[in-house]
Inverse folding.
């Protein structure tokens, strides 16, 4: 199990690095937002693998929080990009 | 012993799908194809990793938490991708040069508020 988890962590770190390349290069702002969304998903996966590594199922709450924050962050940024007139204007 | 092997397979599968998603994010030519890679392969990878965790600790509370996160991610990732795709389309992010169909062409009103079924 230990060896498998080491391989999983190396793969996830590589994925994080690849999506960071898109975050740095991304020609448009939506590209960067997608990269951030995927990065938060990868980090949630890393914490989930860390649960097995440490034997601490309490850390699954952190996975929930990161999933919620990534969703609301993406939706907020998409609304900001769309610049729809709201009721207040 | 055996359930541990299944759990390890799920964890490796999830990490592999995450790598595929990140690779697609770097290699695909335009925003919309990149979005397709990141949201689908990414959520499948997270789902496989969570399934691996649930199999490694098969207690009711761990399985319930994993199911909760899984349900939330599978419900919200398409919504986020849809909103971001619409925002990018309205911002006129350029398509890949090999794109063959644009179903939404000329169907948004000038104030970008309503979408009609006929092109204007």
């Amino acid at each position: 199990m230990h060896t498998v988890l080491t391989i999983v962590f190396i793969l996830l770190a590589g994925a994080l690095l690849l999506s960071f390349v898109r975050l740095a290069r991304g020609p448009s702002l939506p590209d960067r937002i997608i990269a951030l969304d995927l990065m938060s998903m990868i980090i949630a996966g890393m914490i989930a693998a860390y649960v097995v590594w440490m034997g601490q199922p309490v850390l699954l709450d952190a996975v929930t929080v990161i999933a919620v924050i990534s969703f609301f962050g993406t939706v907020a940024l998409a609304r900001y990009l769309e610049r729809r007139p709201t009721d207040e204007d | 012993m055996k359930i541990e092997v299944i759990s390890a397979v799920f964890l490796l599968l999830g990490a592999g799908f995450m790598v595929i998603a990140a690779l697609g994010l770097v290699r695909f030519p335009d925003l919309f194809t990149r979005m397709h890679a990141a949201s689908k392969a990414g959520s499948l990878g997270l789902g496989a990793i969570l399934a691996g965790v649930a199999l490694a600790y098969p207690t009711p509370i761990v399985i319930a938490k994993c199911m909760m996160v899984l349900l939330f991610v599978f419900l919200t990732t398409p919504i986020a991708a849809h909103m971001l795709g619409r925002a990018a389309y309205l911002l006129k992010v350029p398509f890949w040069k090999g794109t063959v169909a644009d179903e939404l062409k000329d169907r948004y009103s000038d104030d970008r508020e309503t979408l009609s079924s006929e092109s204007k």
